[in-house]
From TrEMBL:
Coiled coil: none annotated. It comes from Lithohypha guttulata. This is Mannose-1-phosphate guanylyltransferase. It comes from the Eukaryota. PANTHER family: ACETYLTRANSFERASE, CYSE_LACA_LPXA_NODL FAMILY (AFU_ORTHOLOGUE AFUA_2G08430)-RELATED (PTHR23416:SF54), SIALIC ACID SYNTHASE-RELATED (PTHR23416).
Length: 199
């Protein structure tokens, strides 16, 4: 049996958080071959904290660096090939503003889903609040807080607290920007997300 690759050693972390009970393939002879067996699986670096875990959806090839926090009162989905820097926070849960309704821990817990598109990059210490959608191919600057009514359109850079759109990203991946035909083989395939929840 060869040495474990980082993806092999992180797989139990992802499985325990997302309640995914699929078994791992047998170990390969080398760490490189072992890594290839799980190349499309998400890579999550410990430590990671989740409120429930079963409301987290990670796409193929997602990378979540250490100290991620998921308050997954509602679904938190991260699209394929998205990179999340260290200390990223995904807070889909919220509470009423009225203290008479909130009642400390006796009141209701509310929430709205979070959706992060494919091929995004979230810098370190990014916080995503309830109800946010980050479009495909976006980059969110380190330390940013993406808050209500500030959805980020596809292929844009956003940063700040609260995060605001800074500029559009020029890319051949965006069909609305294409002035010449780009061969399909040069574009990353869409729809390669995997659900990692009790399948």
């Amino acid at each position: 049996m060869g040495l474990c690759s980082p993806r092999t050693s992180s797989y139990p972390i992802v499985a325990s958080i997302t309640n995914d009970h699929r078994s791992l393939p047998d170990h390969a002879l080398t760490a490189e071959e072992d890594g290839q067996l799980l190349a499309d699986e998400p890579l999550v670096i410990a430590p990671v904290r989740a409120d429930y875990g079963f409301n987290i959806r990670l796409g193929a090839g997602v990378f979540v660096n250490f100290n991620a926090t998921f308050i997954d009162t509602c679904q938190v989905s991260i699209g394929a090939r998205t990179l999340c820097g260290p200390n990223c926070n995904f807070y889909s849960g919220t509470h009423p503003l009225d203290p008479a309704v909130r009642m400390g821990m006796s009141g209701p817990e509310l929430g709205k889903p979070i959706a992060i598109g494919q091929d995004c990059w979230l810098g370190g210490n990014v916080t995503i609040l309830p109800g946010i959608t980050v479009g495909r191919g976006c980059s969110i600057g380190a330390g940013s807080v993406v808050t209500k009514c500030k959805n980020i359109p596809n292929f844009h850079v956003a940063a700040g607290n609260p995060a605001r759109v800074i500029r559009r990203i020029e890319t051949a991946m965006d069909p609305s920007q294409s002035t010449t035909a780009v061969p399909a083989s040069e574009l990353v395939k869409e729809g390669t997300e995997k659900l990692l929840v009790g399948q």
